[in-house]
Amino acid sequence: SLLYQASPDVSLYTRVAEGFRGPTIQGRSAVFNSDFTTAKSETILSWEGGVKSRLLNNTLSLNATVFAYRVEDIQLNGNDVNGNGVLFNADKADAYGMEAEANWKPVPNLTLGAGLSLLHSKIRDKNVYAQVCILNGVVVCTVEDPTIKVGANTFAQIDGNPLPNAPEYNVDLTARYDQPLGNGGRAFIAGDFNIQGYTQFVLYKTKEFTANGNFEGGLKIGYAAPDDAYELSVFARNITNEKNLKGVIENYMAAVFNEPRIIGVSLSGKFR
Length: 272
What we know:
The chain is built from no helices and 24 strands. By secondary structure, the chain is mostly beta strands.
């Protein structure tokens, strides 16, 4: 890694790293009288470069980074025909993207934040296939990849697909206003908002097992005691009561959703 201070307010950095994950065994299948499955070691080589800055008399911070990585012999997790988890390796997966964040204090008591991440990932192995959603011998979802039949099983070619649970983009917005009080404490109001781009939840492409444009917002109003000794607040999560897909159980076509709107009271403190 290298770090270069271009000016008192701006630093540049770059980093190259290599690592590995050891062999893995999936023993849970034995509970269901299925064979153990294993995956051999995977290795990763990653590159990263970025800038960190503090501007406008330290009222604005801007940070950004670009990155790329390759995972050789990537370990993947799929299902067998009975819905039991199986492990296997693909030749490799490539990914690249960027992350950026900004925090700005336009006035002393107001802080605004914004973050953006972009990610493009791709599995690269023309000979790797994954078992599709099947229940009692019937494919129960709409598979959009090329498929082959092996006995009673149906497999999809996953070459070129993105990695599961890897959103194409994430956008985060935050705002917080603190009002100082005479006793040294603060009253505050804070909000946050997140929107998530196209996300594939399984190794193969389907109409059902994806999400695009999921968003959630939150709000918090409270009081912070002097020296942040304790904080009392009321809060709301998922304030618009969105129903966002977060995961799936493939063969049963079962959806895992986010939590509904939650409104509550929070009390936290420090003990010294």
